[in-house]
Amino acid sequence: MAKKMQIRYTISFMILAVLLLLLFLWNVNSGSTSLTAGEIFGIILRKAGDETAVRIIWDIRLPRVLAVIILGGALSVSGFLLQTFFNNPIAGPFVLGISSGAKLVVSLVMIFLLSKGLTSGSGIMILAAFAGAMISMGFILLISNKVHRMSLLVICGIMIGYICSAITDFVVTFADDSNIVNLHNWSMGSFSGMSWENIRVMSVVALGALLLTFLMSKPISAYQLGEVYARNMGVNIRVFRILLILLSSILSACVTAFAGPISFVGIAVPHLVKNLLKTAKPILIIPACFLGGAVFCLFCDLIARVVFAPTELSISSVTAVFGAPVVIYMMIRQKTKTG
């Protein structure tokens, strides 16, 4: 049985890795300038080839694709941490209003800086998004102390998200026209306009948080079996829960700061990954969630760019189309089990 599961894990990771590579090449090659796989590798590895093609790949397409991989993986892992924290498969940064809180504070900071003729750097955006995520998370935790039914907590999270979105829309309505143009694409969710500076900052923040999350695999595994068991295994529950909140908030804030609010990835991907691996072991689920989130977002970003080209869809619209049915299926399945 153990050997059978080992084979399943190996095959699952190989499938995710192959899909990641194929979608990476497909995304890099999608656009008005088409190239062969050999030309793409030549440009990426040696910067060899036509000068225009090199500039298109290195300055536009490659930063975007890398951002999709990093942020998609980060969002999926953030969802897994929240599902572990609340012990509910429907918990996620978008559903619980955490992304909306981050969006609100980032919008306020962006409008304030733009009105002063200043530009917001990557660090400022992440700090603003983290502050917004923590404010929303604070409200969720306060409500969770009063409400013991997870369905009510999720509904409260959705309401917090609506309130944050309404305030954001209200603020944007009274902003200058130039500010609204700058905010529009970002507030709808988009991976466009990524730069190498963005990649450097998000790599340090997101990959650092992901590494810490992976190092917490053992306490997470103990926590999945219940607080009493985790405490008996030597886990400091209070510190552990704080770390879960901080890491999930940092990951979702990093995504919101650079790409805006992205829906359903944090809920759907961990569920799909668990079904693929047939296990909930964090030491396997965390890297698988990162790969699965990257694959899912690469696929959705490709559709967003290509289907109605040259018009680009918002990434949230596409992730909702593919992620929402997974969430509906999860809710029906959970209801069937409990019923």
TrEMBL record:
Transmembrane segments: 62-82, 94-115, 121-143, 150-175, 195-215, 239-264, 284-304, 313-332
Subcellular localization(s) per the UniProt record: Cell membrane
Membrane-related topology note: Multi-pass membrane protein
Domain of life: Bacteria
Residues in the signal sequence: none
Broad class of the protein's primary localization: membrane
Keyword Cell membrane: yes
InterPro entries in alphabetical order: ABC_BtuC-like (IPR037294), ABC_transptr_permease_BtuC (IPR000522)
Keywords carried by this UniProt record: Cell membrane, Membrane, Transmembrane, Transmembrane helix, Transport
Record has tRNA processing as a keyword: no
Any one Pfam family match given in the protein's UniProt record, by short name: FecCD
Family that this chain belongs to: Belongs to the binding-protein-dependent transport system permease family. FecCD subfamily.
Name of the molecule in the record: Iron ABC transporter permease
Record lineage: Bacteria, Bacillati, Bacillota, Clostridia, Lachnospirales
